[in-house]
Design a protein that fits this description.
807 residues; mainly beta; Immunoglobulin-like; Maltoporin, Chain A; 2 domains; 22-stranded antiparallel barrel; 54 strands
Length: 807
């Protein structure tokens, strides 16, 4: 393994050292203005027939670098301007131009904004993809997961308040089947405290959501889809801070800044966050009850969560050079984050904790190199990182608690329940420390055969090793060191063709997945003094292959059809194979990879209407999945989960979104998704032998019918020249869904009920100063909301946020 890692790093260094080979190139810079002298912001500038593109900044300025000498057609497009094109010759090291444009009668401005340049390029390739650009949303007290939850076909599953576990469901597939990336890098490298919800929208340029079929450049094994967060990399100097305070003693603050020396290209990008919440919201229902005396019936109560505090901090910084002759981007960076989280209950709300908690910290170093035309027609980008996560689970006090926050014991007849005898709240007392070591490298090569044909090669290397130590267990047992490690290589190759004057785009690709895993885990037989502890070794090597493609065709300018299909593979993740004590997840080192045949067909209709803009995007999808990995309660016990292959699941459904805007100030978005995910076999619990899932039953714990609508007003210069007023309202409907498999469904616990939630808020930016104040209300009518295994989410919450841009 070490030799392979050295080989990859040697390739990275060779690519960087070869960056000095380049042709005669120049820089094109300038500004774009309207005829009245106002600057034109967010205008897309592209050299037609090339990959060179940029977007004007807040001052209407743009810059394109490393352009080979020659004559080009420059095309400008935006929702605010009339489409403009003209010829320009690049024949010296720096060309400066000023461009005057006309205002367009057709304007688009939405909560979810679909633009040109990279965003339009992504959609035109034929993949089933939604793109979120959080324009002005960073001014609100809104979390990144809220943006995702408002997207067609996406359901964010959160087990509680701020900092709780989050899963993402994309058209029926969820959990680790949906991979999350930051700038194309798997997010698990960053550690648990640097999650999607920890990243404030202010740090995000856009979010790409691929449903089912995933392109080669996102090289991880994303069987069900992928969420790729593109962080802001502004070339203009800026710095801004924000602070939000709200219900449940929730504090969230962040800062972000960029600096670039225009002459040398030296660049610094950075950002950070601090999050804190008591998460002391009220809960009630079937699982929130107390036993007032031994043997007495359970009495329902309305209780406050009393042991659910969460706090996390993180900072990420990169420095290097951008847009210089020898590199588009060469950055060395690092990230540090830590987290401290109390644990209120097990995997259901029946078992209440009052002392158990988890803390962790992560550190990562990374190197990134990007160069277009490093050699003639060849683009290269590579990223390498080394990260370490230290996680400690603290569970040393055997006392149990009721939902009233009082010490108590649960009785089984006349005797205390057996778990009290273990010395901890979740069983045996523990001070388990896990150290996870990750090495990750990703290399992407793009060869432009000609203007209409492109080859892309991608390689991902990921190694994982976990070391564990628990001083609370017997010394002889602790000396039997467990070993957990794997290495996976994923190779991808794709070919893209553009034909019929760029109306038809075709992409075909193939991927190879290679994984070696080694586990040496303790097993126990017998009870009490006769218990025997042994090490069980599991060594597996798997090889899997997949292929697929995507096609889009513009029938007319206002109508495009697209389809994509893939035979996909997903390798088991570390926490599924090796478990994670802090999350009450049991190891299963013999998990098999998932396999799925995915298909999408959709259209995009954008009719020409004066002063109005309408976009309609329906999408039909089919998923035929084998060996689906699903978490379920082992033995029907509510405290622990285990991941297992449940066999075959067939899913079919449709999602659609309708977007409407009037000029720039009124935006309405409505989307919905409905699907049927049906199990085609019976799965037995390996412990109890009881059926977990039965043939022809619906996939449990999976919402299958959702509707979301969003109404938004943005009025500049409403009360004074230069100010900005924003009002928004969001409604989410989730139809009732099966909580567990029919084999384990109990009376009164079979379904999670229908839920409706309303969010609203206002924001105001003062004129002449870069200061914004916002007020937001989530769950306006204090509805009882559930996601994973009926774990209740927060009720009504009110939040105030202050944002100040220093420059």
């Amino acid at each position: 393994m070490i030799q392979k890692i050295r080989y990859i790093l040697a390739v990275v260094l060779m690519l960087i050292s070869g960056a000095s080979c380049f042709a005669q190139q120049g820089t094109l810079k300038g500004d774009v203005q309207f005829k009245n002298g106002e600057v034109a912001v967010a205008v897309a500038i592209q050299l037609v027939g090339t990959e060179f593109r940029a977007m004007t900044d807040a001052n209407g300025r743009f810059q394109l670098t490393n352009i080979p000498f020659g004559e080009y057609t420059i095309q400008l497009s935006s929702i605010e301007i009339e489409k403009t094109a003209f010829s320009q010759t690049i024949h010296k090291e720096e060309e400066t131009i000023s461009i005057i444009v006309n205002t367009s009668d057709k304007l688009l401005g939405e909560t979810i904004v679909y633009g040109k340049t990279e965003v339009r390029e992504v959609r035109d390739k034929g993949f089933a993809v939604s793109v979120i650009e959080p324009r002005n949303l960073e001014l609100q007290s809104i979390q990144t997961n809220d943006l995702l939850d408002r997207t067609a076909g996406v359901r964010v599953r959160q087990s509680g308040g701020l900092g709780s576990e989050v899963n993402y469901n994309l058209n029926g597939l969820s959990g680790n089947s949906v991979k999350v990336f930051i700038d194309g890098i798997p997010i698990h490298n960053y550690g648990p405290s640097f999650s999607i919800n920890s990243i404030p929208p202010a740090m995000i340029d856009r979010i790409e959501i691929f449903k089912g079929v995933v392109p080669v450049h996102l090289s991880d094994d994303a069987l069900g889809g992928a969420i790729n967060i593109i962080l802001k990399k502004k070339m203009t100097n800026n710095f801004a801070v924000s602070y939000s305070y709200g219900s449940f003693n929730t504090h969230q603050s962040d800062f972000r800044g960029n600096y670039r020396n225009e002459k040398s290209g030296f660049t610094v990008n950075g950002g950070g966050f601090i999050n804190y919440s008591d998460n002391n919201y009220k809960v009630w229902g079937d699982n929130v009850n107390v036993q007032l005396a031994p043997g007495a019936a359970n009495t329902p109560v309305v209780a406050k969560r009393f042991h659910d505090r969460y706090r996390s901090q993180g900072v990420k910084m990169d420095l290097g050079f951008t847009n210089v002759k020898w590199a588009d981007r060469l950055m060395i960076g690092g990230m540090f984050s830590n987290m401290d989280r109390q644990i209120q209950h097990g995997q259901s709300m029946k078992v209440v904790y009052g002392n158990r908690h988890m803390k962790s910290h992560s550190i990562m170093g990374n190197l990134e190199f990007v160069k277009r035309s490093i050699f003639k027609k060849l683009d290269v980008s590579t990223f390498a990182s080394v990260s370490r996560l230290d996680r400690t689970t603290v569970d040393t006090i055997p006392t149990h608690y009721s939902w009233l926050g009082r010490e108590t014991y649960y009785y089984n007849g006349t005797q205390p329940d057996v778990w009290v005898l273990g010395g901890g709240e979740a069983g045996r007392k523990s001070l388990l420390n896990d150290i996870d070591l990750n090495i990750n490298s990703r290399t992407n090569l793009v060869y432009h055969i000609n203007e209409n044909n492109t080859l892309t090669f991608n390689h991902l290397l990921n190694t994982f090793e976990r070391k564990s130590d628990d001083p609370m267990i017997p010394a002889a047992e602790n000396a039997m060191r467990e070993q957990r490690s794997f290495m996976k290589n994923i190779l991808g190759l794709s070919y893209e063709n553009v034909a019929f004057k760029q109306k038809l785009r075709t992409t075909v690709f193939g991927k190879g997945y290679f994984m070696e895993r080694n586990a040496s885990l303790r097993t126990k037989t017998g009870n009490g003094p006769n218990q025997i502890v042994n090490l069980k070794e599991t060594n597996m090597t798997t090889q899997n292959y997949s292929f697929g493609g995507a096609i889009s065709f513009k029938i007319i300018r206002q109508l495009m059809v697209m389809t994509s299909a893939e035979r996909a593979v997903r390798l088991p993740e570390a926490n599924e194979i090796f478990g994670i004590v802090a999350e009450n997840i049991i190891a299963n080192p013999e998990l098999k990879p998932e396999r799925s045949d995915n298909f999408n067909f959709g259209i995009e209709f954008n009719p020409d209407l004066p002063k109005h803009n309408v976009i309609f995007r329906p999408n039909i999808f089919i998923r035929n999945t084998n060996d689906l990995i699903l978490r379920y309660n082992q033995g029907g016990y509510d405290q622990n989960l285990v991941s297992g292959n449940i066999g075959k699941v067939f899913t079919k459904g449709v999602d659609a979104e309708l977007l409407y805007s009037f000029k720039r100030w009124l935006m309405v978005a409505v989307n919905g998704s409905i699907f049927d995910a049906q199990i085609h076999n019976t799965t037995l619990d390996p412990v109890s032998g009881e059926p977990v899932l039965t043939n022809k039953s619906r996939l449990p714990n999976t919402p299958y019918f959702t509707i979301n609508s969003n109404f938004r007003i943005e009025r500049p210069s409403l009360f004074a020249k230069g100010d900005l007023f924003i009002f928004h309202y969001n409604f989410l409907y989730v139809h009732e869904f099966l909580r567990r498999g029919t084999g384990l469904g109990g009376a009164g616990q079979t379904f999670i009920p229908t839920q409706m939630t309303h969010d609203t808020g206002v924001a105001y930016t003062f004129p002449k100063v870069r200061f914004t104040v916002s007020f937001d209300v989530r769950n306006l009518f204090n509805a009882q909301l559930f996601d994973n295994f009926a774990l209740q989410k927060p009720g009504r919450g009110c939040y105030v946020k202050l944002t100040y841009s220093i420059f």
